[in-house]
Amino acid sequence: MADDSDQNKDNPTGSHDESRRRFLKGVGIAGAGAALADNLLIEAKAKDTQAKGARTVNGSVDVTLDINGKKRTVKVEPRTTLLSTLRNHLDPAVTGPKLVCDMGTCGACTVLLDGKPAYSCLVLAVDAVQKKITTVEGLGNPAAMNTVQSAFVDKDALMCGFCTPGFVTTISAYLKKNPNPSLDQVREACRGNFCRCGTYPRVFEAALAAAKSANRES
User: Fold this and answer.
1) Domain final position from 92, 120, 137
2) Is 25 inside a domain boundary?
3) Integer Rg of the chain from CA
4) pLDDT digit string (tens) for 135-149?
C-alpha cells in the first residue's frame, strides 16, 4: 500500500493547487464585493445629485443688498453676478464697477465686501446678501472725493478710465490696512488690477501721495 510520501511524489503540487484555488476564489469574492460597493456608491451619489437638483431654485428671487450704505432690493436669477446686478438690474444703476474681462483677471469690477476687495464679476448677488458692499461711488464723489480719488486727479493717474474705479477701490482699502506703504507694497497690493493703458507709474505715485496726505490729516 502506498504511503503518504508516495502520494506526494505522484502529485507534488497537489497541496499548492488547492491553496491556489482557495486564494483565487477569495480574490474573486473580494473583487465582486468591491465592484458591488462601487456600484452602490455610484448609485448613492446619483440619487444625492438628483435630490439636490430637485431643490434647485428656478426663476427669480428677491435679494436685498447693502450698497454704499443703502438697502437696495432687486429681483434677479440666482445665477446673476453682483456686477450684473449693480449695472443692469438696479434702478438707478451703479456703474462704477466696470465690465471688462468678466473672468476675474483685470480688477476693473472691484468692489469692497465688508471692507475687503473682491471681483464683483465672480460673486453672485445672492452671496452678497448681509454683506456691506462698497463701490467707488461709496468712497467719494466729485464734490467730496476721498484722498485716493483726489490723488488720482492730482497725479493724472488715469487715461481711458476703465480700470480706475478698481484701482481706487483696491488702494483705498489697502491704505486702511497699511497707511504708510512702500512702493513695492503698493505694487503688490495692486497685483490683481490691470491697466491696458500702462499708467501704473502714476497710479502707484497717486497711491503713495494719498498715503502721505492721509497721514498729514491724521
Assistant:
1) 137
2) no
3) 32
4) 999 999 999 999 999
| C-alpha to C-alpha distance for 73 and 90, rounded to whole angstroms | 8
* Closest CA relative to residue 69, chosen from 134, 15, 144: 134
Measure the CA–CA gap between 171 and 192, rounded to whole angstroms: 11
> Of 201, 212, 196, 137, which is closest to residue 168 (Cα–Cα)?
137
The model's pLDDT over 23-81, given as tens digits with 9 standing for 90+, comes to: 555 655 555 555 555 555 556 655 565 555 545 557 899 999 999 999 999 999 999 99
Tell me the CATH number at 85: 3.10.20.30
> Which CATH number goes with the domain that contains 161?
1.10.150.120
Q: What is the 3-state secondary structure (H, E, C) of the chain?
A: CCCHHHHHHHCCCHHHHHHHHHHHHHHHHHHHHHHHHHHHHHHHHHHHHHHHHHCCCCCCEEEEEEECCEEEEEEECCCCEHHHHHHHHCCCCCCCCCCCCCCCCCCCCEEEECCEEEECCCCEHHHHCCCEEECHHHHCECCECCHHHHHHHHCCCCCCCCCHHHHHHHHHHHHHHCCCCCHHHHHHHCCCCCCCCCCHHHHHHHHHHHHHHHHHHC
Is residue 100 situated within a structural domain? Answer: yes
- 0.70 cut: is pTM over it? yes
In a domain, 35, yes or no: no
Q: Do 156 and 85 have their domain in common? A: no
Q: Measuring CA to CA, which residue among 191, 177, 71 is closest to residue 128?
A: 71
Domain total of the chain: 2
